[in-house]
Design goal:
The chain has about 950 residues and is α/β, with parallel strands linked by helices. It has 34 helices and 29 strands. It is elongated.
Length: about 950
């Protein structure tokens, strides 16, 4: 008796386990399987035959369709109770409205499908387009692919879509494939399987039914099944080992559905020209029986020529159902097809079991999609949710991770030694490369070279030693033309033969198949698509702001097989991206706009440039307002401002730090040693440490210019000035005013002979920088202007940072500072605002530097990098730290050596919300920059608050710069 009981229990355990495993294998079942089954049974048992047959159909409708077309779909819902709809082109708001209307008409909620392979943008306007699968195939981090599937699924769910006909799992082994191509993850079966699996998991984690396509494999065809029936001429072993490989992997992981393609596959279906979608051997024997697939089986669209030419409407639907498909997509004639299937049911050709099998699967899928508890879709906040920052951050990460360096001879990438480079950009292709060019110019000067003839192009390029070629093809769709023109191939060959050349391909990799040789190309970067972000990220990679991580998803030659991808190292140059990518909040940063708008409205400044960077990435980069209040010229990123006292830490101080790093000076070096003429003066024993900390009894400033003014006319005295240049008067103050040539040294002598303040206490002073400038220039026997260019600005790629801006830029690119009625009697435009610096010819240690915000940020990032930037170590971290130290804090002196530091009490230059390790400086003209090593934040604010009158202190009294800094820190969320 006991033996019988044990056998019975064993049988019961086996039965339960077998049943549980069977349920686990069914991808349409949910956790509350009893409730699901109860709902399905309840719905099915109340259905008429016509209703059951109606569930088999999903018809196509565009939300942009005519009213007549919409009424026809509504008729099919009411009269034939179709099971679902497939939305095509239109807009998200239109689709929601129509979706709600159609669902309202249907007794059984409609299953809604859509092709959203790269997001809703595949069909809908005003929605996020994610990269095409070929681009995703280059990414090595499959977590990013899963996140992409997840994000697309969220969008689908938001607009009421339940089935996304994705991922495409076709293995694109034929470069000439006209319909798959960019829609495939690649040519390698393992790669395709891994990417597709990650994509599927992401979608299904959000409750969207994934649908792998195009079964049994559309990757190696040379024709389009929309137009003709393509043939797959491989034997069954090849198909089993290659084309079916991704399906096997996805089926094991509970793939919800599969779409069967219209293909002629002789090795699977012996009847010549017999479409796979209506072949029982393919659908039932192979997919359902051999592969044990239990999910929903969709036909591809039955109105495609690949199958519609095979049989008449109605007959093709019946044949597809008899083959084993569950859902018939886009029937050409639902009423006729419904009649054919009903007739076949009554004739016995279709059994109740067969019909029940598919209809119940459809109902199980509807339950899984949440249609047992259907709610209409709300339109509120739709645009915001479909176009969220989360999408953009992910898109940026995908592009960054896809970029693939295919070739890199002589380590040409990333581009180093900018001071030795003269770079040209040449554009090929039929699409814009404007964003690429603009991004390149954020790193150094790059000239766009254009020519009508090859000879002319070659001649123009002789002035350059590095050529960047961009091949830009349309990014509108994955089917757009991607090939080089013959002329472009010839030009590329000749350009590369004669120049160091890097080719950037903004098209699918197959574009390179027509190239006879790549021998002359030093480097090749595959960017895959010509989107704005792809162009920007490609430029960033070229200059070492990003590292190359991608690998080719397809082969483009024997030299560059699938999997080719060279890594490049970061040079710690600034990159450019979104706030959320570095733990900041875009919405909070938008408050800056309000403050700036108020600033300009209240005439605190006519315009400004503003940059915020964090963790080496510029995440806020805006220009506001105009050059002047007449509003004739808007502020642009390439415009340069008079930086005023920022000159101290951006020009003079870097050279001093460099000298200290080399052991030429120390912080205890005394003025008398630096400048022999100061021996036996009251400044002989003042150290670099004390004077650059503004703790050395120096006067704040000396108004040198007042001593050169005529006491009667109150204009520049003719004893010292002339209105035209001559040998005796060759120091250019403005283009109408020239200072006496022998007077330069008089300024230094006045400083030497000036009285010191009685009490040793903190007093900000420009005077130490007159001395430091003279010492540096004497040491190198060169001007500060040339030294800063040679030692820092050129190698940094800071091409907008310069003294004497009129020698480099057109006047329209220079922001005016003030209408100086007292000294120069004109608008100061292109000349330094500071009077003392002007009397030195525009080059001084304390003022005279002009720049845009982007180049200021580069120098500040070099500081944050510990003296390293762009592959070059300018000075050591230890030396920099000595200068960025408050040496006299115990004496209530907040300053570092040269650098300003946060306030020690309530008043000071910052918002009071930043670390004591931070440093920066402000400038009289309305400039400010600050860097924080702890939070890795850089802030640059450039304005001309002094225009037209320096007495305008509203920018200062309203604490505009520090209020913006406060918002920056409030926006940090990590």
């Amino acid at each position: 008796m006991r033996h019988i009981i044990v056998k019975y229990i064993s049988f019961l355990i086996f039965f339960i386990t077998f049943g549980a495993n069977a349920q686990l294998d069914d991808p349409l079942l949910v956790n509350d399987i009893e409730d699901q089954k109860r709902w399905v049974d309840n719905v099915y048992n109340r259905m008429t035959l016509k209703q059951k047959v109606g569930q088999l159909f999903m018809v196509s409708i565009a939300s942009s369709a005519s009213q007549k077309e919409k009424e026809e779909i509504k008729r099919l819902i009411k009269e034939f109770e179709i099971g679902g709809v497939v939305f095509s082109k239109g807009g998200p708001n239109q689709q929601i409205k129509l979706n709600n209307e159609l669902q309202e008409l249907s007794k059984i909620p409609l299953l809604v499908g859509m092709d959203a392979e790269w997001g809703l943008a595949m069909r809908l306007d005003s929605t996020q387009a994610f990269p095409w699968n070929m681009t995703l195939g280059a990414i090595q981090d499959n977590d990013l692919i899963e996140k992409t599937g997840k994000q697309i699924a969220k969008h689908c769910k938001r607009i009421g879509v339940h089935v996304n006909f994705a991922p495409v799992v076709d293995i694109n082994t034929n470069p000439e494939n006209p319909i798959i191509g960019n829609r495939s993850f690649g040519e390698d079966k393992d790669l395709v399987a891994q990417k597709a699996l990650a994509f599927m998991k992401g979608m299904q984690s959000e409750g969207i039914l994934a649908s792998a396509k195009h079964f049994p494999g559309h990757g190696d065809t040379q024709s389009d099944s929309h137009k003709i029936l393509p043939t797959i001429n491989f034997d069954s072993n090849r198909i089993n080992n290659v084309e079916l490989y991704p399906y096997k992997k996805l089926i094991k992981e509970k793939l919800s559905s599969i779409m069967v393609a219209h293909l002629n596959v002789p090795s699977l279906e012996y009847r010549q020209g017999y479409p796979s979608s209506v072949s029982k051997k393919v659908v039932s024997n192979l997919l359902k029986d051999s592969l044990q697939f239990k999910g929903l089986i969709f036909t591809d669209a039955l109105n495609m020529k690949g199958v519609s030419d095979f049989k008449a409407p109605g007959d093709i639907d019946l044949a597809a159902f008899l083959a084993g498909n569950d859902v018939l997509l886009m029937s050409e004639d639902v009423p006729l097809a419904s009649q054919k299937i009903v007739s076949a049911y009554y004739s016995g050709a279709i059994t109740e079991e067969r019909l029940s099998h598919s209809v119940r699967k459809i109902l199980y899928a509807k339950y899984k999609a949440g249609l047992n508890n259907y709610h209409s879709i709300k339109a509120e906040f739709l645009d915001e949710e479909l176009n969220s920052l989360e999408n953009k951050v992910l898109f940026h990460r995908l592009i960054e991770n896809s970029l693939t360096v295919v070739k890199n001879d002589k380590a040409s990438l990333p581009i180093k030694n900018l001071d030795l480079k003269k770079i040209a950009y040449v554009s090929f292709g039929d699409d814009s490369g404007e964003e690429f060019y603009e991004e390149l110019n954020k790193y150094t000067q790059v000239d766009w070279i254009k020519a009508g003839q090859l000879g002319e192009m070659i001649d123009k390029l002789k002035k350059y030693n590095y050529v960047i070629v961009g091949f830009h093809k349309s990014n509108k769709s994955p089917w757009s033309s991607y090939k080089f023109k013959d002329k472009e191939l010839v030009w590329l060959y000749e350009i590369a033969r004669l120049n160091t050349t890097v080719l950037n391909v903004f098209a699918k990799p197959y574009a390179m198949l027509d190239m006879q040789t790549t021998t002359n190309l030093e480097s090749i970067l595959m960017a895959y698509q010509n989107s704005k972000v792809a162009q920007e990220k490609a430029a960033q990679l070229l200059f070492g702001a990003l590292e190359a991580k991608g690998k080719l998803p397809v082969s483009i030659s024997e030299e560059f097989p699938v999997g080719t991808g060279l890594e490049t190292r970061s040079l710690n140059r600034l990159s450019y991206g979104l706030p959320e990518s570095v733990g900041m909040n875009s919405y909070k940063l938008e408050k800056i706009d309000s403050i700036v708008d108020f600033t300009i409205q209240e005439k605190m400044a006519p315009g400004l440039q503003l940059i915020v960077a964090r963790k080496g990435k510029v995440i806020f980069n805006k220009n506001y307002g105009y050059h002047t209040y007449n509003k004739q010229r808007k502020v642009k990123s390439s415009d340069v401002y008079d930086l005023a006292s920022l000159t101290k830490i951006l020009a003079t101080l870097p050279l001093a730090i460099e000298l200290k790093d080399k052991g030429v000076i120390s912080l205890n070096t005394k003025v008398g040693k630096m400048l022999p003429s100061f021996k036996e003066s009251n400044k002989e024993h003042i150290t670099i440490r004390s004077m650059l900390s503004h703790y050395a009894k120096f006067k704040a400033w000396i108004p040198f210019y007042l001593q050169t003014m005529d006491s009667v006319t109150r204009k520049p005295d003719k004893k010292y000035y002339r209105t035209s240049r001559s040998k005796e008067f060759n120091i250019e103050v403005t283009n109408n005013l020239y200072f006496r040539s022998d007077m330069k040294d008089s300024l230094l002598l006045q400083i030497r002979d000036s009285e010191l303040r009685d009490r040793l206490s903190y007093k900000y002073s420009d005077l130490p920088y007159y001395l430091l400038k003279r010492y540096i220039e004497d040491h190198y026997d060169n001007s500060l202007h040339k030294l800063t260019q040679q030692h820092f600005y050129k190698p940094l790629g800071a091409n907008h940072a310069t003294f004497l801006p009129l020698k480099k830029f057109k006047k329209r690119r220079i922001i005016p500072t003030e209408y100086d009625k007292i000294f120069r009697g004109e608008v100061i435009h292109g000349y330094v605002h500071d009077q003392g610096a002007a009397m030195l010819g525009g080059v001084a240690g304390h003022a005279g530097l002009f720049s845009n915000a982007n180049d200021v940020a580069k120098i500040m990032q070099m500081y944050l990098n510990g003296g390293y930037y762009g592959g070059k170590q300018y000075f050591g971290q230890e030396t920099l730290d000595e200068f960025n130290t408050c040496h006299y804090c115990h004496r209530r002196v907040r300053r570092g050596i040269g650098f300003d530091k946060p306030q020690l009490g309530d008043l000071g230059p910052t918002c009071g919300c930043i670390s004591m390790a931070s440093f920066g400086h402000s400038g009289f003209t309305g400039t400010f920059t600050w860097a924080d090593p702890e939070q890795e934040v850089i802030y640059v604010f450039l304005s001309n608050r002094t225009y037209p009158n320096a007495a305008n202190r509203k920018l200062i009294s309203n604490n505009v710069r520090s209020e913006i800094q406060k918002i920056i820190y409030e926006s940090i969320e990590d």
